[in-house]
Structure formats: C-alpha cells, structure tokens
Write a structure and sequence with these properties.
alpha/beta; eight-stranded mixed β-sheet; Carbamate kinase; 26% strand
C-alpha cells in the first residue's frame, strides 16, 4: 500500500503556530512520503488591498482579473510557498517548492468567464511529484495552474482552488491519505454535531440543504473525488497538536469522508 500523505494547509491555519510542519518532517523520517498543497487566501486579500486592487467573490471563488492574477501568483507561488519551504528546511526537512505551472503539474481550463482567470483542473502530471518523493523531498505545491487547450498549454496562468488541487493531486498520486487542515473540528450535521464519518450520499444531502456551505463545499467535494479512488480523506482542525499523527494512526478525529 502506498505511503503517500497529501496534506492541504489552508490559509486560515498558515502561521497559526501548530505542530503541522514538525509533524510532516517527523513522519517523513519515519518512512511516509508527505506532499503539501497550500492556500493563502487571506494573505492574497491583504496584498491586493495594499496595491489598491479590489477583491470580489462569486460563489466562494475569487474573481481574478489580470491585475489580481499577478498578486495571486506572487503570493502563492512566491511568498507563501517559499516561506513553507524555508520553515520545513529549518526543522530538518528537505522540501522543494513548486507551483502547478511547473512541469505542467496542474492542467486547467477556464472555469467560468465571469470569474476571469480561474481554472478548473482537468489533469495532473504526477511524475514531477513522484520524482521529488523518490529523491527524499517534501513537495510543496502552490495552486497555480497552466491553461490547457486541446493537446497543449496556452501559456496562460490560472488561479485554482487549493482544496480542489489537493484532491486532484491525491487521486493522481494514489495517495493513502488526504488531509484537510482547517480551523474547524470537521463537518457538522444539521443539528450542529461534528460528524465522525460522512458518506457521498450524506454529503450530497447536506450540501443540497445548505448545511455544508461556502468554503467547506470544495473540501468535501475534493474528499469525495479522492475517496472514490481509494484515498482515505479527512477534514479536521489543523491547530490540534499532532493532528497528522492521529490521522495516520486512524484515530477518530475530524470527519472522515467517503
């Protein structure tokens, strides 16, 4: 069985001083092969504000025009990505940062013209990640994709949802685990209780009724996509100490989906 662990670190937990990065390095030393996919939405909004670029959202997705895209790429593929790589290195890990544009890792098409340069992932080139894993590195992936038309790329960069990217990467790698680290304990039921497990049917019902809404929707959808390929997917509070150890030891934490 594969020992690949795909971890999505959300913008809400970046810099929250949890044990996640320490855990990743320790788990790698113990023989697991972690892959990190990160967000950075709050920092993007901050930098857009600094540059007086307005921010607007449609259905939870950032409308990304040409000026916004410059900031998105700079923050995600630059600042956030390299800070994570540097932090993992300081802890003794060997990390390599890349974006979905590198090696054609994430291929996407325009999701909706009204959203501007926002992509819908249509393919993942897993080989660059597998080579890094085989070389003993922790790949750290920024959710920036290349627009793909027909048989090849157009050269246009696209902003893609980090949750969706994490699910697609986990499925393409045949990962054993997909973990979404958030600032909530898991997915709540209609009566507000944290669900230990959530089936595809149950998820569909909760989304249809509006119980699962906003940013939780792409997380749940990504979990369902990955779990359909055999990946164990979970959404949990990334601020909990040793959260990743709880996952790999199959402890009842967060919401397991699929």
């Amino acid at each position: 069985m594969t020992n690949i662990l795909v971890v999505k670190i959300g913008g809400s937990t970046l810099g929250s001083h949890d044990t996640t990065l320490d855990d990743l390095v320790t788990l790698q030393r113990r023989g697991l092969r972690p892959v990190v996919v990160h967000g950075g939405g709050a920092l993007i909004s901050e930098w857009l504000s600094r540059h007086n670029v307005p921010t607007r959202f449609e259905r939870g997705l950032r409308v990304t025009d040409g000026e916004s895209l410059k900031v998105v790429v700079a923050v995600l593929a630059g600042l956030v990505n390299k800070e994570l790589v540097a932090s993992l290195g300081a802890l003794g890990g060997r990390a390599v940062g890349l974006s979905g544009a590198d090696g054609g890792l994430l291929r996407a098409r325009l999701l909706d013209e009204r959203l501007g340069f926002v992509g819908d992932i249509i393919g993942v080139e897993a080989r660059p990640l597998l080579r890094l894993l085989e070389d003993g590195c922790i790949p750290v992936v920024a959710p920036v994709a290349v627009q793909w038309e027909g048989e090849g790329p157009t050269g246009q960069l696209l902003n893609v949802n980090a949750d969706t990217a994490a699910g697609a990467v986990a499925a393409a790698l045949g990962a054993r685990w997909l973990v979404f680290l958030t600032d909530v304990p898991g997915v709540r039921s209609a009566d507000g209780q944290i669900l230990a497990r959530l089936s595809a049917k149950g998820a569909a019902g909760l989304m249809e009724s509006g119980v699962i809404e906003g940013g939780m929707i792409p997380k749940v959808e990504a979990c369902l996509e990955a779990s359909a390929t055999g990946v164990a997917a979970v959404i949990l509070d990334g601020r909990l100490p040793a959260a990743l150890f709880s996952v790999v030891s199959q402890q009842p934490i967060g919401t397991w989906i699929g």
